[in-house]
Design brief:
The protein has 15 helices and 27 strands. It is of the alpha+beta class and about 500 residues long. The protein has four domains: about 100 residues, Rossmann fold (3-Layer(aba) Sandwich), CATH 3.40.50.20; about 80 residues, Dna Ligase, domain 1; about 140 residues, ATP-grasp fold, B domain (D-amino Acid Aminotransferase, Chain A, domain 1); about 90 residues, Alpha-Beta Complex (Glycinamide Ribonucleotide Synthetase, Chain A, domain 4). The longest helix has 23 residues. It is globular and about 75 Å long. About 0% of the residues have low confidence.
């Protein structure tokens, strides 16, 4: 059996690693822009190889799949999906794990996602406004003073999101100026490279609560959930600093997190299931591959959708794929044949922590984070009980250099999250740059203090949303406006 893997990050390294555990003993081939050392090693060990090139080019990827006569293609990142790689591959009669262009719009266009949730009355939806024009967005901000989340209307690699609380009346003017400035930066910076959707700016109501990610396999008929993961997006300790693609994540033990209940887990699965069915109704084709709900426990709904991924999260995939005991090739074939109902997903009952190590400059100055020779003392990491998943690293002329994003993701497994965090923390010291440029990571991810903070917030949120549910206020918001009286909003 031969499989072509698309992508070059730690997520794809975790996918390749899981595929190699299959009883089918597949030969792994990979197409990527940078030569990921971990994936390259797997390809070599299985009798496959690496092809460098544009992994977002549908014709290039599909032609390579044809030349190699692979049994199926597995797409890791989102951009190849948005560009129609899965469509071109399947057009040539080769099965593909990865959403096609139509279904992947659930991630690509945040405005599409919000409209879909409202149209099909899917629980966990938020009020929103989408704008094609910068002046219209600014006029809206001038008219309505409220706490909002400002986002690029398209998936832009996690960049450009800003949440602004409008609580102090004496700062109204200053907050308004900040909002206007950020709207301009969304259009002029974060949305500039993208012309594949018309909407430019998304304004959502602000919500608060602990976030978590529910990743699922789906064949369009059945949704099979994986254990929950919580990613930590902010660059620095105590959840401060710019948002990144994720600086590390926690999971387990079992299918839920310490601050999410079994009931909330089941409700989250139902939200994703309803969305999968709605996507097929809307775009006219079944969703086949991986879908993930980036969720938040809020006082408005309980489980609430912040955004969807049309693929595994990164680093979230690294938390759960090493624990997967079900054969990933069999899962893939069941997705292709729409027989996923016959597969039972099984995972080791462990807690896991992933800590991402990145060069200084990431995420806002990736040019500064690029091109540094890096050393990973993998044998020492293994001795401490950790594992290395290679991220944005290019193997060139026998030397590894940083690619500008998160270079390495350290995986650790233990009975508890804090115990796994301590293992990962020890392992981080075995990663360094030869030229003296600095690396950084978040030492607080998975620690008992941060975990307790998440639990306390979740308990408070849970009390509120359960009270609202008891009073039949879920999906509703009631405001009192001077001169207008009671205003009730339906969600």
């Amino acid at each position: 059996m031969k499989i072509l893997l698309v992508g070059e990050g730690a997520r794809e390294h975790a996918i390749a690693d899981a595929l190699t555990r299959s009883t089918y003993n597949p030969r792994i081939f990979a197409v990527m822009k940078l030569k990921n050392p971990g994936i390259a090693r797997i390809c070599e060990n299985t009798g496959g190889n690496v092809k460098l090139g544009d992994s977002t080019d549908p014709v290039f990827v599909a032609s390579l799949a044809e030349q190699l006569s692979v049994d199926f293609v597995f797409i890791g990142p989102e951009e190849p999906q948005f560009r129609g790689v899965a469509d071109e591959v399947e057009e040539r009669g080769i099965p593909c794990i990865g959403a096609k262009r139509g279904p992947s719009e659930i991630e690509m266009s945040k405005a599409f996602m919000r409209r879909l949730m409202w149209k099909y009355k899917i629980p966990g939806r938020l009020r929103f406004m989408a704008f094609k024009d910068i002046d219209e967005a600014i006029a809206y901000i001038e008219e309505y003073a409220e706490s909002i989340a400002l986002k690029p209307a398209r998936q832009a690699g996690g960049k450009g999101v800003k949440v602004i609380a409008d609580l102090q009346a004496y700062l109204k003017k200053e907050k308004e100026e900040v909002k206007k400035k950020h709207v301009r930066s969304i259009v002029e910076e974060h949305m500039r490279p993208y012309t594949d959707i018309e909407d430019r700016i998304l304004i959502e109501q602000k919500v608060e609560g602990p976030e978590y990610t529910l990743q699922c396999f789906t064949d369009g008929r059945v949704v099979k959930p994986l254990p929950l993961v919580q990613d930590n997006k902010n660059a620095y300790e105590m959840d401060i600093g710019p948002e990144t693609g994720g600086m590390g994540s926690i999971s387990g033990p079992g299918e839920v997190l310490p601050f999410i209940s079994e009931e909330e887990y089941k409700e989250s699965v139902e939200i994703v299931s309803q969305t999968v069915r709605a996507i097929e109704k809307e775009v006219g084709e079944a969703y086949k591959g991986v879908i993930a709900g980036q969720m938040m426990l809020t006082a408005l709904w309980g489980p609430t959708i912040i955004e969807f991924y049309s693929r595994f999260g990164d680093p979230e995939a690294v938390n759960v794929l090493p624990l997967l005991e079900t054969d990933l090739v069999e899962v893939s074939e069941a997705i292709i044949s729409q027989s996923l109902n016959k597969v039972k997903l099984e995972f080791r009952d462990s807690a896991t922590v992933v800590k991402c190590v990145a060069p200084r400059g990431y995420p806002n100055r990736r040019d500064l984070a690029k091109g540094h020779p890096i050393v990973i003392e993998e044998d020492k990491i293994t001795k401490e009980g950790g594992r290395v998943f290679y991220g944005s690293i290019d193997l060139s002329n026998g030397e590894m250099v940083t690619g500008g994003s998160r270079a390495v993701e350290i995986f650790a497994e233990a009975e508890t999250i804090p115990a796994a965090s301590k293992i990962a923390e020890k392992c981080v010291s075995f990663v360094f740059l030869k030229d003296g440029w600095k690396l950084f990571h978040r030492s607080d991810i998975g620690t008992e203090s941060l975990l307790n903070e998440r639990v306390e917030i979740a308990e408070l949120i849970r009390e509120i949303y359960r009270y609202r549910r008891e009073k039949e206020l879920i999906g509703k918001q009631i405001d009192w406006l001077p001169g207008k009286g009671r205003i009730e909003y339906e969600f």
